Amino acid sequence: MNTAAATLQDLKTLEALESNVRSYSRVFPAIFSKARGSIILTNDGQKIIDFFSGAGALNYGHNDHAIRAAITDYLGSDAVVHALDMATPAKINFMETFNSTILQARGLRYRLQFTGPTGANAVEAALKLSRKGTGRHNVISFTRGYHGLSLGAVAATGNRFYRKPAGAALSGVTFMPYDGYLGPTVNTAEHLRTALMDQSSGVDLPAAILLETVQGEGGINVASEQWLRSVQTIAKDVGAFFIIDDIQMGCGRTGDFFSFEIAGLSPDVVVLSKSLSGYGLPLSMLLIKDELDGWAPGEHAGTFRGNNLALVAGTAAIDIYWRDEFFAQQVKCTGDFLHHQLLAIAARYGNRFAVRGRGMVFGFDCLAAQTADTITRKAFEKGLMIERCGPDNQVVKFLPALTIDRETLNEGLAIFDKAVAETMCRSRS
Ligand SMILES: *Cc1c(COP(=O)(O)O)cnc(C)c1O
């Protein structure tokens, strides 16, 4: 059997044995065997450029060899891998490194809570803490927000595609319009303030206001700094926890370690996951302001809290990339370049596309799901992995590794450019 036939056979195995719920193996129908940096190799030897980055879990690319050295050393030394939330040198190292290099360097002070390994686990913990701390049940979330798919998190997620299968009443969340949702001239923060200050608005006072500073799954919607500061003030005024879900936009994606640094925010709780371990290993964490750490010991538990291997990788990632300003500057610079390239591609087609984003996350809004679908499919056939987002999956989502070199970035952009040209040429004829 040649390799292409073998791949087809293996994909048939997947089809026969794996639940119908599988998703990315449909969108990217290949078998991925090796990866390094921004390049993935398939079983049949095709080279794929990765602009997807594990949905934001691989900000430093695949298999960063300096991080890999730290975890292979750790495994080779028979150090403790699983210890629930017991103290280990790996955990203490991570906490000290995170505290000094990330928090103190930014004048921030938080306690760290290690939650279960997924982003949704951490969101659940954040919401529970805010409800416990305020004695309130309602949470304000925003249109097109995405916070995970467990019951509490999906209640705060906008998309009906995810809400419907929950099969239970998704209660305890009131959705308010995100920045820009009602057009560029409506200040939706004022709308939120009015609803929360009015005794008769029908909106219960919230335990928390939960938001992403840039909505990832929701279509790369960028909130303005002014809007973010207004919402923070509103949260303070109504006695609600101000929670930033930085699961996808944190760990450098927007150019700073935290996506809210640009607006000078001081969130009560910050939710981190995805790229926190720096290696694609599951690790999630809450940052909690001292005075709001209202947990009783053991009150929120979980078997896989702060997995030591992931903590070792996370410590290495911070040591390698965040000791000084250089990496953040580089990310912003590469991001500016990417932004200009995308604007140039869009400009060739009049008003058919819109480009949004900041740092190194951009949405190329095709305004039609079919167009985005065709473009990303063609791109994959040509060797570029890139996914879609937005309420109708109409936005092509650029999420290359923050470490990508200019040559690979250009190569990927050239493939994308070609995929757009072919798609538009076909739709015109
Ligand atoms: C991915 C994501 C989540 C959910 O994380 P999981 O690990 O998939 O549970 C929550 N919030 C945001 C903003 C995300 O991007």
From TrEMBL:
Q: Name one GO biological process term.
A: ectoine biosynthetic process
Q: What class of enzyme is it?
A: transferase
- Does Transferase appear among the keywords? yes
Q: Which cofactor does it need?
A: pyridoxal 5'-phosphate
Superkingdom is: Bacteria
EC number(s): the record gives 2.6.1.76
Give the molecular function GO annotations: diaminobutyrate-2-oxoglutarate transaminase activity; diaminobutyrate-pyruvate transaminase activity; pyridoxal phosphate binding
Stated family:
Belongs to the class-III pyridoxal-phosphate-dependent aminotransferase family.
Tell me what this protein is called. Diaminobutyrate--2-oxoglutarate transaminase
